[in-house]
Design brief:
- The protein has five helices and seven strands; from the N terminus they run H-H-E-H-E-E-H-E-E-H-E-E.
- By secondary structure, the protein is an alpha+beta fold.
- It is globular, with a radius of gyration of 21 Å.
Length: 221
């Protein structure tokens, strides 16, 4: 019964997230159909395209949540991954500090995806935010503590922020953190919010340490 109730709630939230942009698309499409003003028609068409892109983003996020991609791991150092994620999230590298074992290597594609989401959330919560990434190896796993100096995650939301469609953003889908959880779980890792209700959100990212394959041994002639 609990599982059925959870599926029902998930279906309701999916329908709600898709219905909102679709309602806008239908409204602007109807205006476009009746409009004889070229300027207004272009504006209505742009709104239709915007709504369709929003639906496309939701569907792609849902597909990623259902089954994350599993490709051959591309290894990069944590320092390189953090730089790539900061660029993707629009966070200046001057506002990101890396502490600890920055040369440890990990699955670059997965970690960039997760860190990009954490950095983007921090930037949207506080545009001038600074982020500290603490890196270390523990028991064969790579562990990162990602902490910003923004307002933090409200206690009322707490760790439910990891669940699908839970968001504090006015236009957020609430799929970013839940998708990050799925991606890491698919790789044998996890994501945790360490300090709900406190200023300066702190997330712990863990995933297995990866080693590059050893070069082939060439016999001496």
């Amino acid at each position: 019964l609990d599982r059925l109730a959870g599926l029902s709630e998930l279906a309701r939230r999916i329908a709600h997230e898709i219905k909102n942009p679709l309602t806008g698309v239908m409204g602007f499409a109807a205006l476009l159909e009746r409009s004889e003003d070229p300027v207004a028609s272009r504006r209505f068409a742009g709104k239709v395209v915007q709504g369709v892109r929003q639906v496309d983003h939701i569907v792609k996020s849902l597909l990623g949540f259902a089954k994350p991609d599993r490709k051959r791991a591309r290894l990069s150092s944590v320092a390189e991954v953090v730089a790539d994620a900061a660029l993707s999230a629009g966070l200046p590298t001057s506002r990101v500090q890396i502490q600890g074992q920055r040369e440890l290597r990990a699955d670059a594609d997965a970690l960039v995806r997760v860190l990009t989401n954490l950095f983007r959330n921090a930037v949207e919560a506080a545009p001038g935010v600074h982020v500290v990434v603490r890196v270390e190896a523990r028991h064969g796993r790579l562990e990162l503590l990602v902490q910003d100096d923004g307002p933090g995650v409200p206690a009322a939301i707490g760790r439910s922020a990891m669940e699908p469609f839970v968001s504090t953003k006015e236009r957020g889908t609430g799929l970013g953190l839940s998708l990050s959880v799925r991606v890491l779980a698919y790789l044998g890792g996890d994501l945790d919010l360490m300090n709900p209700g406190e200023a300066g959100a702190c997330f712990r990212v863990r995933l297995p340490l990866l080693q590059e394959s050893a070069p082939p041994v060439v016999a001496a002639e």
